[in-house]
Amino acid sequence: MTPLGLRVFVSVMLSAAIAIRALRRKSLDCSAAIIGFIVMSIHLATSYRFGALLLVFFFTSSLLTKLGEEKKRSIDADFKEGGQRNWVQVLANSGIASALVLFVGHLTGWEEPTLSSEGSPLVKCLIGGIIGHYACCNGDTWSSEVGMLSESQPRLITTFKSVPKGTNGAVTTTGLLAAAAAGCVIGLTYLLVGFFTGDYRGLKPLLVIPLSLLAGVFGSLIDSVLGATVQYSGICQVRKKVVGKKGPTVKRISGSAILDNNGVNFVSVVLTTFVTAILFLYVF
């Protein structure tokens, strides 16, 4: 079996197992499990490193989503048991990366892509975009899930005024530190898997870690700014929870109802992916 054939076989088997497990544990609904299977297969078949980034994001985010469920249930009006995600959320967090992964595979002839000095500048740019994409998604998820459990009072990023927990665009120091850690984990994952699948020379590849850390924080901040401005937040006087839609019993806290949470995530991912791609083009 050729290296590509082996990767395809491993990717299909592993992706199917993970999708079934996620469905049983209610991390994904049926539609999300199907889309997730396709997305994971694409990533793993193109590069084990790309697959590792997706899997680390998925598993760590799912774990943190389930952390402190009782407290989150009392705060989050849209709380779902197990943090179950649908197909829209899966595509919002992996659609752009999947397109970039396929493009990288096409450019490299489906060989393992690297950041070596001899590599194509466009491939390096795309690799940076993929890493930035998952650093952003991971950073946003970690900051939200950990920040919600923080004892400190969140503040709206645009005004720094204290707001209720669960308000879109609210930040805490704990949440920002979590975003930095999340980005760092993505960079570290790419680097460690690369030692087994790539050809690293010198210390330059270590720069992936700080760049990923910055992408995690940048993505989280962009998400917060968008959440505070173009995503509606209000407090329901009956349920005593923050909600994302207007209503007769809802008092506005911040933002306008221009984008929903998926839209905000998509825009922040696009911006972070682009910025990180440019950084990798110049650094590597």
Automatic annotation (TrEMBL):
<feature type="transmembrane region" description="Helical">
    <location>
        <begin position="264"/>
        <end position="283"/>
    </location>
</feature>
<feature type="transmembrane region" description="Helical">
    <location>
        <begin position="170"/>
        <end position="193"/>
    </location>
</feature>
<keyword id="KW-0812">Transmembrane</keyword>
<feature type="transmembrane region" description="Helical">
    <location>
        <begin position="6"/>
        <end position="23"/>
    </location>
</feature>
<feature type="transmembrane region" description="Helical">
    <location>
        <begin position="30"/>
        <end position="46"/>
    </location>
</feature>
<keyword id="KW-0472">Membrane</keyword>
<comment type="similarity">
    <text>Belongs to the TMEM19 family.</text>
</comment>
<dbReference type="Pfam" id="PF01940">
    <property type="entry name" value="DUF92"/>
</dbReference>
<feature type="transmembrane region" description="Helical">
    <location>
        <begin position="205"/>
        <end position="222"/>
    </location>
</feature>
<protein>
    <submittedName>
        <fullName>Uncharacterized protein</fullName>
    </submittedName>
</protein>
<keyword id="KW-1133">Transmembrane helix</keyword>
<dbReference type="InterPro" id="IPR002794">
    <property type="entry name" value="DUF92_TMEM19"/>
</dbReference>
<dbReference type="GO" id="GO:0016020">
    <property type="term" value="C:membrane"/>
</dbReference>
<feature type="transmembrane region" description="Helical">
    <location>
        <begin position="90"/>
        <end position="110"/>
    </location>
</feature>
